[in-house]
């Protein structure tokens, strides 16, 4: 289980905490090491469709996002390289994502909305143990 976060553009200010609602743009590809930048078939993108909003760190998205996005700051852009066990694992997401597929996402953190104070939590000490920052 791991995610590698490569910063493409530094953001500024705070990073989201557990439970905050993130506002993102993203494009996702199947990882294919025979292709430039390891980007295989594109399977989804919010570009042109509208922003993607969800709570982070609470299991509403794949593990690679839950662990990778909190390393970012607002305005930041990053590439997330996510192993299959932190993506859709052995089941995949048929017919779009085959079983055991590693994924690549280019993401932009446009904003985040803090969760109510009683729901907003700091990240556990070991939350980022399987996150590699580039």
From TrEMBL:
<feature type="domain" description="PPIase FKBP-type">
    <location>
        <begin position="19"/>
        <end position="113"/>
    </location>
</feature>
<dbReference type="InterPro" id="IPR001179">
    <property type="entry name" value="PPIase_FKBP_dom"/>
</dbReference>
<dbReference type="Pfam" id="PF00254">
    <property type="entry name" value="FKBP_C"/>
</dbReference>
<protein>
    <recommendedName>
        <fullName>peptidylprolyl isomerase</fullName>
        <ecNumber>5.2.1.8</ecNumber>
    </recommendedName>
</protein>
<dbReference type="InterPro" id="IPR046357">
    <property type="entry name" value="PPIase_dom_sf"/>
</dbReference>
<keyword id="KW-0413">Isomerase</keyword>
<dbReference type="GO" id="GO:0003755">
    <property type="term" value="F:peptidyl-prolyl cis-trans isomerase activity"/>
</dbReference>
<dbReference type="GO" id="GO:0005737">
    <property type="term" value="C:cytoplasm"/>
</dbReference>
<keyword id="KW-0697">Rotamase</keyword>
<comment type="similarity">
    <text>Belongs to the FKBP-type PPIase family. FKBP1 subfamily.</text>
</comment>
<dbReference type="InterPro" id="IPR050689">
    <property type="entry name" value="FKBP-type_PPIase"/>
</dbReference>
